[in-house]
Amino acid sequence: FLGSSSSWLQWHRRPERAPSPTSSAHATTLAAMLRVALRARAVARGDVQSTARPWAEQTKRRSCQGSRPLRSAAEAKTGDGISVDVEYSGLWGQITTFPKRRPFATNIMVATVKTSCADLVIQKCAEGKKEIDWKRNGVFTAFGFAYLGIAQWFIYVSLFTRLCPNAIKFANMSWAEKLKFRAGQIDLVKQTVYDNFIHYTFVYFPVFYMFKELIQADSSKGAGIDVAKMGENALSKYWNNCVTDNLYMWSLWVPGDLLVYACPIWMRLPLNHVISLAWTMILSNLRGSEK
């Protein structure tokens, strides 16, 4: 009986079927949905902290790096680089952080506008001219753009930081740290000496007189421009004025440079231009009207 019953059960048993691919996919989908629902509930209860940032915050806040040169990531973290990570939101934040994010472009714009405006102020206010001498103003505008805006960036940021390897690190330190950093203090004095007694005396003034001679040269005779003669005239005028010019320069810029080279590196040239605004007015009043 048992044997016949067992045979009957085997004969009537339904064969096993392999699971359908469709049913497996549905099960996987349901399991994933269940996990998402459980996690969302846990986050809502405060059991789990969400790692995703809100979409609005991601679109509003941005992170940008400032201009090169940046030596390495490790140096940037220790304050030994020029680049600065800046977060900002909105148009106002973009404007206020622009000097840190784009110091080279900021330097060119400030140098050009500052130098031109300083000469205009002297012509109208100090000298009381009814008509502006645009050729004279062109000297200061071109000099501000080409030399103060572009050339001085490489002198102050690229060249001086190579001659004084602790300059950037010292500049980016806090004031308390600067008082303890002996090598940085030595580089601060070195930069001031290089700037006042080498750069200004042997580069800045000759270039200024060359710009002045080039733009104010009398081309009405139609003889063209004699570059050799122009250079000779420019250097001759500087030779006659060099003692007075440099004494004026040193009286303002020796203390000014001590402040400029002690400030953070991204702020170096903007602060330089603030002091330079006063100097350009002095130079315009001193040499602007000379022929």
Low-confidence stretches: 50-80
Q: Give the C-alpha Rg.
A: 35 Å
Helix/strand order: HHHEHEHHHHHHHHH
| Helix fraction bin | over 70%
Going across the major beta sheet, what is the strand order? 1-2
Structural class: mainly alpha
Multimeric status of the protein:
single chain
Give the beta-strand count: 2
Distance, first to last CA = 134 Å
Estimated share of beta-strand residues = under 5%
Number of helices: 13
The average pLDDT value, as a whole number, equals 78
Mind describing the biggest β-sheet? 2 strands, antiparallel
The geometry reads as elongated
Write a concise keyword list for the protein shown above.
two-stranded antiparallel sheet, mainly alpha, 291 residues, single chain, 13 helices, elongated, 72% helix
Overview of this structure, please?
The chain contains 13 helices and 2 strands; from the N terminus they run αααβαβααααααααα. It has 291 residues and is mostly helical. Strands 1-2 form a two-stranded antiparallel sheet. Helix 12 packs across helix 13. The radius of gyration is 35 Å and the shape is elongated. The relative contact order is 0.10. Residues 50-80 have low confidence and may be disordered.
Summarize the structure.
By secondary structure, this protein is an all-alpha fold. It has helices spanning 2-12, 21-45, 55-60, 73-77, 90-96, 98-101, 103-126, 134-163, 167-171, 175-178, 182-216, 227-260, 268-287, and strands at 61-64, 86-89.
